[in-house]
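Render this sequence as a predicted structure.
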Amino acid sequence: MTRKMSKWLIISLFASLLVVLAACGGDDSTDGDSAEDSESNEETGSSEESSEELEGSVVIDGSGTVYPLMARLAEEYMINEQPNVSVEVSRAGSSAGFEKFLVEENGTDFNDASRPIKPEEQEKADELGLDVMEIKMALDGLSIVVNPENDWATELTEEEVLDIFLADSEVETWADINSEWPDEEIQTYGPNENHGTYEFFFENILEEQDLKEDANLQQEYSTLVQLVSEDVNGIGFFGFGYYDNNKDQVKAVSIDFGDGPVEPSLDTIGEEGPYQNFTRPVFTYLNVAHAEEKPQVYDYAEYLMNAVNDYAGETGFAPIPEEEAQQQLEDIKEIK
């Protein structure tokens, strides 16, 4: 009896030991689950980080031509992406904007430009130790516009456009271009020297020859639209977006570059398209140090390249090739 009890006691103790070992095995299994949970949490954390709510401000100035596109992107970002971030977009003009961007302290975060940064501006950035990233935003077609009642100068050759605006040209009246046109003095209009559009026109189209001394140059594009709309002998130049949004007030002139007249449109504007002679890329420039220091500036830069082609067309710009946008996005991600 005593032996039987001892035998059952040993069996019970052995069984208890197995339960303990099994329990230990269960702990191992639980640890495995914990590791997976941890990994899963890390993945979740990464996702949450990417949708982190940000706050603060992003300050942008520069080109009036780029303004409609940048303002549309800013609006969309503040409504649907980061409601607590204030994106302030102004339009002092490309050159005036660079003066606010290229400063030692308290400069803007981005500067929009309707022409590339000039060598002297890059030198200033280097002197200040500013790391500046060029971001190509879209393609614009410089548009030549006239009054809607002008039913004669609907088509011009590229050379005739030069003759109308060049200081040393003998063209003063419409009849000087075509004897069947009115013998009325041509009034020329355009943006002033603060704007990259003026510089593009002067450098790339007039090939740095002087503009007519009496050309009426304005700071505000809305003023230019109004002046041409009120002057039947007026002819002006600005970005396609301003023409496209004011078709009821001004009319675009089709330009003959040698293969027949081409009207500016989203289909013809392109670096290799039929309107290529008057096509130009437009940019924004990012202060890289600001993007490193301020999460909202970095986030907005990344957003720009993800969204810019979605809003280019509706604001009067042809989109850049998608592979180019993706490459620039990768370049921006390297800042982080």
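Summary. Residues 1-49 have pLDDT under 50 and may be disordered. Residues 2-50 form the longest helix (49 residues).
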